[in-house]
Write a structure and sequence with these properties.
This protein has 255 residues and is α+β, with helices and mostly antiparallel strands. 25% of the residues lie in helices and 27% in strands. Helix 1 links the parallel strand 1 and strand 2. It binds one DNA strand of 15 nucleotides through loops.
Length: 255
Amino acid sequence: MRIATWNVNSLKVRLPQVLDWLAVNQPDVLCLQETKLQDENFPITEIMGAGYQSIYAGQKSYNGVALLGKKMGSETATAIPGLVDPQKRVLAATYGDVRVICIYVPNGESVGSDKYRYKLDWLFDLNKWLRDELIKYPKLALLGDFNIAPEERDVHDPILWGGKVLFSYPEREAFMGLLKLGFVDSFRLFNQPDKSYTWWDYRMMAFRRNMGLRIDHILLSKEFASTCTACTIDKGPRKNERPSDHSPVMVELKA
DNA sequence: ATGGTAGAGGATCTA
């Protein structure tokens, strides 16, 4: 089984790249973030043409998440239970005995801002919800754009980024809080190239200079992680014309 | 101290 995540920064612009990527990589489930599409505009027909079923939760202009599956998912959830939030950042569905939770964690803007507070509160509510989900679903994948670089080696310049949003201690503690629930960072189960990142700013030729951060993650429940055979970042799409600023990440799992 | 780019939508807001 293959499960992948990709922040596409507008599915309208990136649809041809997503269809190409699906054809080459054939994931069983692809999680998308920042679709920036209202539900009535979701390209279900084009995606069906590539052999995938769509589940989506979108809004105008911002945010928006989707799950593309070779089979249709069930038990769909479009928000953290009990959290009233007009921002579409969560989408969960069950594929066979596998629970997939796609998240687009708030960016946080800058440390100390209202959006930063919202991010930390949101992460607290996510943590609370996932305690129950882990009990309910032994095979659980939590993946998406976390907007957090957990460790120094996940940041091209940890001195420059020290204390800044995406790498501040409260955010990194919230990430560690998810690991403490029993999730495993699948990327670190394997030897990886040095300076592996998933996001590069569009500005200052950051990609060419590999000035990136690893902020897109695939966390697996312990039982599920024991079946994981690979986790890879695909830098290819970031080299496309009109690329997303994020690269896809994918895990492979035994049977 | 602040710019640089991209996307949505039609002036800014968000990232």
